[in-house]
User: Fold this.
Amino acid sequence: MNEVVKTGSGPIVTFCPGSANRLRQQELRPQSRREQPYLMMARYFDSGLARFLAVDPALKIGKNLTNPQRWNRYSYTLNNPLNFFDPDGQEECTVQMRAFISQPSVAGFRGDNRSFSAAPDASSRVSVTVKIETDPAKNQGKPMIGSPQVEVSPTHFIPTGSERTSTGPMLPQADATQASGGGDVSVGVQMNVRNPFTPVGSGIQSDVDINISQDASTAQISGTISGSPSFEANITCGGGPTQNVPLQSEAQGAVAFGVNLQRTNEVNQKVEVKK
Assistant:
């Protein structure tokens, strides 16, 4: 049974008695030692004050003028522990790549009928989400936290109302690598997801690397993607806003869409990550 440690402003950290908590990598102390601060790997946290005892070393105030909750460099997860967690007192990044059809329909197949979006529930044909830790001293030196989240939406053929879900020839794959001494974390996303109603030809393809700098200040996106559909990346670091990065706008019309689907385009973009 989980126990909530009470703090000066209410519950702030939840622990699982008798075992290390997987999210926050801590263990609930005996009542006699509860007043001692917890070492959250990068900073000490005082459950009585509901505050860290040192500033967040990764936070850059100048980049957070529009997000006042981040001005307090001693607070825990923007004072919103129900929606966010911080296992080590620094920050993590979530990297997402999505392919979507901006048109309502193409050649009888339903599209996503939207523009570029940072919304987490925006419709897409394919979505790959990876959570990473850029500090090699954390997460046992593994840059990827957990497993990639991969979603392949069903393809809907409007004239008959039937739906099928693609099985390849290569379903989306993602990995994350980092040199043993640190440096950029490289998230690789590869896929070839063909229309399940079409037995031949290429599908939605990508062979892309998304490199996040160790201080999570910049992202470099490079590689190849199929000429259709539209592609975007979403990057979120340190509880900051999600930054949408448009990578490609698809050609309008069924003929141009189909021709470009059999081609590949180069992508090479560098952006400053908002935190």
